[in-house]
Amino acid sequence: MEILRREYNDVKNFSSWTLVYGRRKVGKSFLVRKYVNYDLYYVITRDLQAYFPTDNSFRNLNEAFSLTIKALRENKTVVIDEFQRMPEKYWDGLSVEHPNGKLILVGSSFRIMQKLVDRQSPLLGLVLPYRLEIIHYSDVLSQVGNPLLSLIYRDPWTLSFVKSVKDLEDKAYQLYMVTKALIGEIFEEEERQLTSLYEAILLSLAEGEWNTAIIAGSLNSKGFNVTPSSVSGYLETLQNMGLVEKIPIYGEKKRARWYYKISSPIISLIFYAEAKYNVSFTENVGELPIGREVQFSIGDLLAEKHSATLAYSPYEDIDIVLLDKGKPIIGYEVKLGEFSKAEAEKSIERIRRAGIPKAGLISLSEKPNFNADEELGPEDLVRISRDVFQKYVIRR
To answer: A Pfam family name for this chain (predicted)?
Structure first.
C-alpha cells in the first residue's frame, strides 16, 4: 500500500538546488526516488562509500563526486541521499558548480540543515531547505478511510507492520524494539547520544505529562537532577529533532503557554506501553491511549479545514480548541464511542463556559445528534480529509 502525500507535487517540481531534510523514516528517500526525474542517484553509506541502486554497485566517494560534477555540468539532475554523511571537504567543489544542473540533497537530520545555512557554509544561499515530517493526518485519512488506522500510518514505516489497531497490542513488544532503535538512530544522526535522561523525558511525555515543572518533578523522583528550565531546553532539542511538538494552550486558568507531546502517534503509543506496562520486559500491554492521540490528529485536520491554529485546553479539559488570530472560534469534545445525552450536554456546557463561542461534538463511532454547533461522525471526518487533501494539492 502506498499513501500519496501532498508534498509529492513540491518534490516533483523542484526547480532549484534543494535539501530535503527531516528525521529518519518519514519517507524522504521514497518521495524523492518516486517523483524526481533524476539522472544520477546514490546513497552515502555509513562507511563513507557511495551506493548506486541502479546497478547495485559501491564506489568510493571521490569517484561519486567526479560523476556528480560531470552530471551537473551537463545540466542533469543529481540526487545525493544521506547527504549528512558527506565530508564537508566536498562542499566547496559542489558550490563551484552552482547553478549548473539540479542538485537534490536528502539529509536525515535537522543538524545538516543548520550546517548548510551556517554563514561559513560554502553552500549558503545556493541550496534551499525543504523540511519533511510525518504525513499529514488528512492525507492518510483521505485514502485509508479508517480514522484510527490512519493515525498509525502517519509514520509511513508502519505500513509494513501494522494492519489493524489490534496489532498495536499484539505486536507492542516488537514495535517498541523498532521505535527505540529508530529514536537511537535519530540521535546518532544528530551526533547526540540517546541518554537515559532523554529516554525518560520521552516516556514522561508518552504517559501524558506535559508541563515542564511536572516533568522535572517526575525525573527528579527517578534520580535525575533537573529543573523546569533545563527540561525546557531538553524539550527544545527533541523538538528540533522532529520528535516532539508543542501546542498552544488555551484557557483563562492557564499557567503554561505550551502543551508538549511526542509528534509521532505510533512512537507515543508504544512508548506509553513501555512507561505503563514495561512492555520490553513483560511483552504484554493493556489499554493504550489511542483517544488522546487521535484527538490531536483530528485537531490538525480541523485546523486545516478552518485555516485556524490548533490549541488545547488541559485545565478546562477541552480536547480541541481552534483559534483565529489568538481568539477561539470553536471547541470540540472527541470520543471513540458514542455520546450519551448527559455527556453531550456536559461537554457543550463546558466548552461554552470556557468562553468559546461554538461547541462541537466528534464521535468515531456514530455521528452525534445533540444540537451542538457542529457534530461529526467518522464519515464526516473522511469527507473533510478528502476536501482538505484536494485543497492543498490543488493549491500547490
So the answer is: AAA_14
